[in-house]
Amino acid sequence: MSSAIRALMLMVALLAGASLAIKCPPEDTLAEGGPRRVILDLDGGGDDAWALVMLLSNEAEYNICVQAVTCSHGNARVSDVLVNVLRILDSLDRLDVPVYVGASEPLITPGPNRNTSHYFWGNNGFGDVAFDSPFAVDSLVSLHAVEAMNELFEKYPNKITLLAVGPLTNVALLYKMYPETRDKIGDLYILGGNRHGVGNTALAAEFNFFRDPEAAHIVLNNSPKIVRVFPWETVLLQTFTTRWRFETFKHTTNPAVELLNQVEYVVYAQEEIWTPCDMYVAAIFLNSSILRTVKTYRAEVELTGWVTRGMMAILHHVKDSSQHNVAVIDEIDTEEVQRMLVALNLK
After folding, report:
1. Contact between 207 and 200 (Cβ < 8 Å)
2. Is the CATH code 3.90.245.10 the one for domain 34-346?
3. pLDDT tens across 138-154, in order?
4. Helices 213-222, 169-177: crossing angle, 10 deg rounding
5. What is the reported pTM?
C-alpha cells in the first residue's frame, strides 16, 4: 500500500474518531425481520460500480443492507479502486457505508502481463475520465479489508453474504489468515471463471481468475459451502446493446448513473454490446427469482497451463454431489434484470 493511501487512512481515522454509523443495524435482528447483510468485494471498474449502485438503490425494496465495501486490485490499482468507490458513495450520499482497502497485488507476484486489451476500463477503472469534483474520503476506515471481513463475519456468523466480483485475493487471504472464519460466511457469490473455456483475456481464462489464479484455487477448494459462480459465458448470454444502454440512461435522476454515463460514454464509445458483468451478481443476491438454470459441479482452477492458466475447469466425470464445490449459473431471467436496471433511473 502506498504512503499516500496510508496517510489518507490516518487522516480519516483522526477526523472520524469512532466508527461511522451505518444503515445496517448494529445488532443481529435477522430473526425479527431485519435486513439481509452483504459485503461487496470489488476491483473498481464500471461494472463493479453498477453492482454497488444496484445494491444501494434497492436496500429498502429487497430488505438488504450493505455492511461494507472491500477493495482489491484488478481493473485498476487498489488506490484507484478506492477513489472510484468513494465517488459512487458520495454521489448517492451514502458515505455511511464503510470502505476498506485490501490486497494491492496477486498472491504470487508479479501478476500476469496486462497489454492494452486488458485495460478495458482504462488505467484507473473509470475510463480515465477527468471529473470536475474531487472525491470524498468519509467512508474510508483505517483497517485492512481482510481484517474487517474477519471481524464482521465473527460478529454476524452466517448472517452476511459475500459478493466477490474482482480477483479473489482478499477472500483467499481471509481463508488463510482466519481459516475458522470460512464457516461463518453466509453465502459466497463470485463473478468470475469460465465453464466452456471461453476467456476474455489474451488466453483462455476469465479476467478475475486470470489476475490471481492461486487465489481462485484457494477459494474454490476451501469454501465449506457450494460457491455460486456467475461465469463469463453466462455474461455473454445476458448482454444488452450499447444503444439500449445509452438511450435508457440518457435521462436519469440517479446521480450515480449520471456519473457512470461519463465513464461509459468513453469506455463503450466503439462497442456494440454492453456487459455490466458484476451487476448480475448483485441482482441475483437481491432477487433470486431471476435464476433460471443452475447446476453443481466439481471445478478446479488451472495453475500451470501456458494457455489455460487461470481457467476454471469443470470436472464433468465427478458425479458425486458431495464432492461438488460450485453452483454454476447458466441462465437468468434477462427481462427481469432489465426491469431492475431501468428502475435505477428512478432511485
Report:
1. yes
2. yes
3. 656 789 999 999 999 99
4. 50
5. 0.92
Cα–Cα distance measured from residue 77 to residue 80, given in angstroms and rounded to the nearest whole number: 5
CA–CA separation, 237 vs 124, rounded Å?
28
Residue-wise pLDDT for 244-301, tens only, equals 999 999 999 999 999 999 999 999 999 999 999 999 999 999 999 999 999 999 999 9
Tell me phi and psi for residue 187, to 5 degrees: -145, 155
Q: How far apart (Å, rounded) are the C-alpha atoms in residues 318 and 50?
A: 36
Distance CA 289, CA 276 (A): 19
CB 274 within 8 A of CB 245: yes
**The amino acid at 78:** V
Q: Which residues of the chain have pLDDT under 70?
A: 1-22, 29-32, 114-118, 136-140
83 phi/psi in degrees, rounded to 5? -60, -45
User: Measured between alpha carbons, how far is 38 from 55 in angstroms, rounded to an integer?
Assistant: 9
